[in-house]
Amino acid sequence: MPPSAEALALLRRLAPDDALSLAAARRPFPLASPLAGTSRLLITGCGHSGTHAVHAALRRHRLAASHEALGADATVGWPFAAHGAAAADLWPFRNASLLLAPHEPIFKLHRDPLFAVAALARGFTEDGRCIQRGYDGLSWALAGRFVSLPEPKAAARWYSCLLEPRARLRLALHYWVKWNLLADKWAAASFRVEALTFGRLAAVWCEYCARAASCVPAAARVCGAQGGDAERVVGEARTGHNSTANPVTWGELLQVEPGMAIIARLLAEDYGYTYPADPLLSPTKKLVGPRPKQASRTADSGS
């Protein structure tokens, strides 16, 4: 599904080079074809948006899914929204065959930016803390290969965790906006991870497979047996990735960088998130005008 038209329009005004780069971005993996063979499901999105939880749910339902690596049935991971010219571009995913493997459909996860941006600012690592200093810097360096980010020193392996909190919050805000726009470009469907059930994910996968002849055999098994599963993909919030503690506020994001905060708000509302009216967000009307009513683009049916 295409990225939000309003968010892109504002990005073109505030950061035209970023908008051009996004327009020129290539699909991360080949489409299925008779020569390429059976296609895998790809699930991607912004970091700290639920890829670990979805991977675990797929594994619980006996699907051969891999997180941040090539899976026989499904490949899951935030870096896979980007197209790497070489396997080394997708550190640490140095399996050359990964770049040639067809993936279709591509599903995208998103998470409320007030929680995701706060978590990313605390630490872009597996456990969501900056004590893994090397991995935090490597994550920012990887993202910075494909979207422009402030704070160039964040890509230095041992420096990123030494940035001031405000600088890390700005870094996380830019990443959340631009990586979501990149992933939206390829997504056949998108889901709010907070409301996602395995049954909903399976149903959308089955609907796609009914229209295409490229799905993995596992999809047929899921469609036959698991389509009604109401298990929530994200259960109890855990430290780091899915923690609901200490979210950032829209007021704080506006103070960090007003234009990027407004784009984040536009995207979040487009994804189906709702927020109380906030006088601090009055620049929205000034910059982009009144918003027309439109249906949510998310495939998630939750509120």
From TrEMBL:
Q: Which domain of life is it from?
A: Eukaryota
Region (Disordered), start-end ranges:
284-303
Q: What is this protein called?
A: Sulfotransferase
Q: Which organism is it from?
A: Prymnesium parvum (Toxic golden alga)
Its ancestry begins with: Eukaryota, Haptista, Haptophyta, Prymnesiophyceae, Prymnesiales
